[in-house]
Design a protein that fits this description.
single chain; alpha/beta; Aspartate Aminotransferase, domain 2; Aspartate Aminotransferase, domain 1; seven-stranded mixed beta sheet; four-stranded antiparallel beta sheet; 11 strands
Amino acid sequence: MSAGAEPYQEALAAAVRHAIRWLESQPHRRVGPQQAAKELLAAFDGELPQSGMAPAEVVDYLASHAEPGLMAMPSGRFFGWVIGGTLPAAMAADWLVSSWDQNSAMRYATPAIAAIEEAAGNWLLQLLGLPEESDVGFVTGATMANFTGMAAARWRLLKDAGWNLDRDGLFGAPRIHCIVGEERHETLDLALRYLGMGSPTVVPADSQGRIDAAELDCALDRIALARSAPGSGPTEGSGPAPILVCLQAGNVHSGAFDPFAAAIAVSKAHGAWVHVDGAFGLWAAAVPELAGLTTGVEGADSWATDAHKSLNVPYDCGIAVVRDPQALRSAMGQHASYLLQDADGSGDPSHKVPELSRRARGVPVWAALKSLGRDGVAEQVRRLATSAARLAEQLAAIDGVEVLNDVGFTQITLAFGDDATTRGVAARLIADGTVWMSGSRWHGRDVLRISVSNWTTDAADVAAAVEAVKVALETVRRSQP
């Protein structure tokens, strides 16, 4: 007999109380955590209790003891890495996903989830201007979205080269030549390692991190020449070389976008598959006045993005888009007699993602898009870019602050003269806790990197951030000999 709602009521009520209290604290709380993992471990570790605790008490214990170790990532003053907040509709939908408890692998078994995710995928293609024939899969994040798109590329490129990857594996297969820009995100290299395709060929980038399309063309020419040279090797064969070119929408330091029209044109001239890592930047396509940043991106073959970034849904919401459904479903799909197939022949959600068991992660995406609409998404992404521009302008007016990048989207990279001062400012900001900005290294310099990704960031948050940086710099200068 089903237990019904009664066993859940007190625990869920406790969770609501703690969640509301946490969200209410965001405008005024310290951004960084107050305790480190080593300090917190004592409250959660030790011997496994012999007897259990009531569910509501577990929630109370969990919330109260975890609170000192939580970072205020939902705060409008959080500018670290590229991490968005969560929209109300998306958060509530995510709670429903947990309570519905659907394994979203099979269309036949969970038709509501399949329909919602299919609709969300269609809306995303419309919003981002991507080919309507594309398949959309919901994965854990941008890393697995890159992996999924590149796995589809591997399958198609090897099939077109006459190699049966499913039957024969990679050993002895024709080499796939992978080309990336000098300033690509590390997750592209990680996906290549996962896929057994080795280290990529690196093409120079400009001062903002954009791949040089002319240099890309030269690299492609070199591959073609090597392919046609006598004694090129048993795995090279004849005909065009299998080539995967990876581009990016949104450099993690500068926010810059690769020149898609030119880079895709030269790639296609050499028969390459083009994959775009657009973890946060692909959303610029939804904003009419920013869409020029992504001009030509629709000419690629696969795209990766992350809805928890610029769209602001909960974590575990990466999106893989592949123009060639056969390639995606061949690379990702699995079939077993016990898995019930929907009679309409549409294929299962599990055919488009690496996992068989997974939560209904496309539902919060649908909820976010439904709550915002096309205009709302455009306005949200526009506000992120506008806040970044305002923040950069005000920071640049402070003596001793260098804005190192052209601020055209949501990223700002700062330096404060020498590396020691920059590191000192970063450390001071973290210690102060008013804002969170993460340190990095770019173009041979220590930098402070700012990412405006949260839908709640407003003019007051921008002003608080500018003042925090100003005070941190003054404090560091006073401490220097």
